[in-house]
Amino acid sequence: MPDLYAQSSRVLRISLGFMLGMAAGTWLGIRWSFRTERAQPYRIILVQCAAAALSVLLAVTLAGVPDALRGLAVIANLGFPMLAAVCGTVGGLQFPIASRLFFFSRGERSAGAMYGFDLLGSCVGALAVSLFVLPVFGLYRTAALLAAVNCAAAIGFVVVRRR
Length: 163
What we know:
163 residues
């Protein structure tokens, strides 16, 4: 029987890595998005490309890790929390930059409305992935699907920016 303390400690480290990454990403996003007086859409393109690259890296890494290496303590104790921190940083960068673009291009709007749509999208996405996509497709195919979605979003930002 697995040690409950060891399992909860791993989950704690992964959550801590993600939350620290989100905080760092939000701080960097605020500093980066308000450096100039005008909004610069290429920043959201760069962040979305980073998210796409991380998604592809995750899908390739999960598919390439042999079964013998999956249980290594180094991967569980250091690798996943570091990956969570990097993913959290990219996620934290997105909201301040996107809100700067949204408010700059549309004038004064309610910040609560944008935050509400962000929470709604997060909730629907989490429910869809955990209740449908993961059970049906499995971890590797879900990672590949998320990589494809992030790549499509990055390409979409580039196409819209060129118009």
